[in-house]
Protein: XRE family transcriptional regulator
Amino acid sequence: MKTNLKSIRLENGEKVEEMAELLNISAAEYIDKENGVISLTNGEKEILSEYYKENVFENNFM
Structure:
């Protein structure tokens, strides 16, 4: 099962700008990460997993 970063964000009612601020990156860079243009770093994956209180990167995260 693939998990999509954008789907997770939308399900939780967050805005791109909020998530970009959490990761300390620009909104444009965050959008590129959601679209798979730029890969998330391991540190960003850890931050997002802690934020969502679950490992959202298991099971072929995309």
